[in-house]
Write a structure and sequence with these properties.
Blueprint lengths: L4 E5 L5 E3 L2 H9 L4 E6 L6 E4 L1 H12 L6 H11 L3 E4 L5 E3 L2 H6 L5 E6 L4 E4 L1 H17 L16
Antiparallel strand pairs: 1-7, 2-6, 3-4, 3-5, 4-8, 7-8
Length: about 150
C-alpha cells in the first residue's frame, strides 16, 4: 500500500526522487514506474500502477461507446495520463504540463492513499489536509469494519 507522505525537492530538469517505500511497493507489483494524470478534484496529480489505470480504462470502456460521457472521461483521464519510469537513482521526470496543473515549482509532496497516491505542492496540501480532517471527523460514522458472513472463513 501507499502510506504516509514524503516531501522531496524537484531538480532543474524536473526530476524528483520517488519515496523508497512507494518504489518498493510498485516493484513488488512488477512495475518500474507509475502512471500520473491531473486530478479532477484537486490542484494535484493522481498516481497509480499500470493495473489500476487499466481498471479505470475498463470502467470507461463499459460506458456506451456513442455517449459523450465516455469521450469526456477517456479524454480527461487517459489522454492526459503519463507513464513515468524510474531512472537508476529512483527518480522520475514530471512534464511541464503535470507540474503546471499541480502548481509545483520547487518541492513535491507524495501523499499515500492506500492503493493510489497523489502528488501535491506542499502548501496546497496543507490547506486540503485541514479540510479533509474536518470532513473526515464529521463523516466518521460512515466508516464501518467489515464483518464476516456466517459460514465464511477468511
Amino acid at each position: 500500500m501507499f502510506l504516509s507522505n514524503f516531501e522531496n525537492k524537484i531538480d532543474k530538469k524536473g526530476r524528483v526522487s520517488v519515496p523508497a517505500t512507494f518504489r518498493s511497493h510498485l516493484s513488488t507489483m512488477g512495475y518500474n514506474g507509475f502512471i500520473a494524470y491531473p486530478s479532477f478534484n484537486h490542484v494535484a496529480l493522481e498516481a497509480c500502477s499500470q493495473d489500476r489505470i487499466e481498471k479505470l480504462s475498463n470502467t470507461i470502456d463499459s460506458l456506451n461507446p456513442f455517449e459523450e460521457k465516455r469521450d469526456y472521461f477517456a479524454t480527461s483521464v487517459l489522454s492526459e495520463s503519463e507513464n513515468l519510469q524510474f531512472d537508476p537513482e529512483g527518480r522520475v521526470t514530471l512534464s511541464e504540463k503535470l507540474l503546471s496543473h499541480a502548481k509545483i515549482k520547487n518541492s513535491i509532496l507524495f501523499v499515500g492513499l492506500g492503493k493510489t497516491f497523489q502528488i501535491w505542492e506542499p502548501k496546497n496540501f496543507q490547506n486540503f489536509r485541514s479540510l479533509a480532517r474536518k470532513k473526515a471527523f464529521q463523516n466518521r460514522s460512515n466508516l464501518k469494519w467489515e464483518t464476516k458472513q456466517k459460514g465464511e472463513s477468511k
